[in-house]
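Hi there, hope your week has been kind to you so far. Please have a think about how the structure follows from the sequence. I've dropped the whole record in just underneath, so have a look:

_____
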Amino acid sequence: CKLNNGGCAHICAERTIRGHVITKCQCRAGYHLHSDNKQCIGTAYKSPNICCSNPNRCDHVCINNPGSYACACHKGFFLKLDERSCADLDECFLLNNGGCSQLCLNTQGSYRCACDYGYRLLSDGKTCQDIDECAINKGGCSHTCQNTAGGYQCQCPRGYIMQQDNKTCEDINECETSNGGCEHRCVNDKGGYRCECGQGFVPNANQTHCSDVNECEVQNGGCGKHTCINTYGSYKCQCLDGYRLDAR
């Protein structure tokens, strides 16, 4: 072995058997002896599985490397500075609201999109679309339903007033306030009202005031050849001399 390392590529080992010195070539770790018993050929190095020796080294995944190891995290988590612990990744903060059109709700290892009240989530799981509440039974409105962004509103026609439930319209009795502006009689109708005049009167053009009817203008009020005298709201017949008024 002292001469040219015994011709061995790596290690020359000597031992004495029955007085004779026998040399044998050996290889360093990772190599094996060639068939010429002198040269060494590289052997694939199989390192010990460090991950298996301590499965609690990493929070999630332990990757075995030659002579060492590395920790990795599941999808939706990131590796902390200690290079072994995993923390939840807030996709809503890092990924432009998670791509959600409205609400992004972060969950452990993931996230999900949600919608504001009055919207529904489409099949893409990200886009919110307004719900037309009026399309189903008029949204519960007794009269008119007006759809709005994210909601709806019940509306009442003229002559009605909205009740506390914000859905039911109740007729306004206009006659209860100043007799509806009518000079004589106020008649309430559904969604409105009308003025009526007493006997002997007709409505003016404004339909609220009444004018006296001059009954004497039509066939002398039925007084015949005698005198017809118009009065406010009525009339009377007056007989000529020598006549008296029939009780009829």
Notes: The longest helix spans residues 50-53. The chain is about 5% helix and 40% strand.
